[in-house]
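User: Please predict the structure of the protein below. I'd like the answer in structure-token form so I can feed it into my own downstream comparison script.

Assistant: Understood. Taking the following sequence of 85 residues as input:
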Amino acid sequence: MQVSENEWISKRAYTLWEKEGHPHGRDADHWAQAKHEFSLLKTSEATKPAQRKKAAPKAVSAEAAPDVEAPAKPKARARKAATAK
């Protein structure tokens, strides 16, 4: 669910007001700061849609190149059996 710009700014301004200890007469300052933070948020890279990276080419299989040795797989650890006491 998306929050409207006005609602986001309102909630952020309220949070700023609470963090400053509920000062009287600073509502315009908090609103301006929240509006500025919203504009920064909208233009930041973090909010732009992610782009998929192209997949790397697949490695040549051992069947296609018999003289190339496949890397050894690490040995799996044996799990400890749960003992009932």
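That's the full token string. Residues 4 and 75 are 53 Å apart (CA to CA).
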